[in-house]
Amino acid sequence: MSFINLEAGARTYVAALKVNPNFAPALAAATRTDRKTMAYDAMFDAEVAVKATLVPKLDALKGEGLLRSYDFATGTGALILNVDESRSAAAFQALQGLGELGRIVRNREVKLDTIVEGPVAAPAEGDKTVEWNVDKLGVQQAWAQGATGEGIVVGIVDTGANVSHEALKGHYRGTNADGTFTHDYNFYDPINHKTEAYDDHDHGSHVAGTSVGGTADHLTGMAPGAKFISAKVFNSGGSGDTATILKGLSWMLAPTKSDGTGADPTKAPDVVSNSWGNSSGTSLSYLDAWKAFEAAGVIPVVAAGNSGPRAGSIGAPGSYAQSITVGATDKNDKVASFSSRGPNPIKDANGVPIPKPDISAPGVDVISSGKTGNSYVKMSGTSMATPATAGVIALVLSKFPTLTAEQMRQVLDTSAVDIDAPGFDTNSGWGRIDAVAALAKAQELFGTPPAPAPAA
Fold it and tell me: Alpha helices of 150-298 — where are they, by DSSP H?
């Protein structure tokens, strides 16, 4: 385990605020937009109530030299604290004495562990190329039924995005009709604080291309009618940390302008794709953010992790009940050896492990867009399976926009292709997702009832 300090000579902690947001109005809201606003406002108000007594205490600790700086990841119920390394023991003891704070943990490094197999040649101009994961999930048949993801926004928490790429430019929400870009509300970079979208790793561009990307002749993405926005929370080496990720999640709940002002929850995505996780499935650092997503009607899709085939290797936030957690499969519908397995270390109220992973999707030898020019890269990992699932969810939402995360989970679980042990298993979940079957199941379970036959 390694720890990250956000300031030189400092030790960084992440603390949970003791918030009690009233999400009931959001859960009862009639539209997804209303849910986003009401959920964010509920969390914001709950945080403000805690800050009223907490901030004076934090300022007093700064005055005593026990606290260097602090920052709130608004909407996530999290507080980021930097203390002097030399006085960390005394600072930690003082922080534990603050009644407004719950758990306090060191800021942990989170590293991407996707298998990068290197660049691949782009298809020759004019060649019709369908990547194997697109074909396997049957998304072209879903498109033929009018489910392309249109009207849905996928948020990608990753290494950024090469929005000038031929497979991404038309799918980035910040691309204007004249080909220029508006990055306000569409790109956020708490790593290097740049205001124009970019990717210096490949991972984020690859994920974006798998979820919503592609060209007319090169099909890489599941939901080409959807749009994406991007929060860059991993650096060029694929390393991030809990605190920075929380800032990215805060932005996803209420995107801002490039200068960090004007938070607007109505611009939040409908699905958040998270191709990352830590090695401890019991970590609760992101749980309040996930509860806010749930209340907002934003569906969090999360990689199971690449620590398989070891049992009990699901990481957080994939271990959370609110996550749709995704394992990886190959071209033959076999679960990848690296794909993390259950049982889940987090249990329900009855002491039973919450079933994880939920489902599986293609994650071996996946080709998608890269960080430079119009490059393409081959990668393997549950990181690749996650955006494929996010894309299929976008397809279903474009036809059934009122589905909640739990309803979507039911749709995916009951329509998946069973590929491992019969029924649910801790290797593949309920099986490998299928776009056409998911649409049919959504219609069966939640579709509009047929109109009554006219009277004779």
Answer: 203-211, 242-253, 287-296
Tell me how many domains the chain contains: 2
Given the residues 250, 383, 415, 428, select the one marked as catalytic: 383
- Give the tens place of pLDDT for each residue, 175-188: 999 999 999 999 99
- One domain, residues 52 and 145: no
Structural domain for 53, as ranges: 10-107
Spot the catalytic one: 158, 200, 202, 420. 158
With bands split at pLDDT 50, 70 and 90, how would you rate the model's confidence at 1? low
Span 245-262, pLDDT tens digits = 999 999 999 999 988 899
β-pairing, 153-158 with 271-274? parallel
**Of 86, 107, 128, the domain-final residue:** 107
On whether residue 51 sits in a domain, the answer given is yes
Q: Which of 201, 203, 206, 218 is catalytic?
A: 203
User: In sequence order, what are the residues at sequence separation of 6 or more whose Cβ sits closer than 8 angstroms to the Cβ of residue 326?
Assistant: 301, 302, 303, 304, 318, 357, 358, 359, 360, 361, 363, 382, 385, 386, 388, 389, 429
- Identify whether 383 is a catalytic site residue: yes
| CA separation for the pair 377, 119 (Å, rounded) | 4
Q: In this structure, are residues 36 and 264 in contact, taking their beta carbons and an 8 Å threshold?
A: no
DSSP string, 129-165: EE-HHHHHTTHHHHHHTT-S-TT-EEEEEESB--TTS
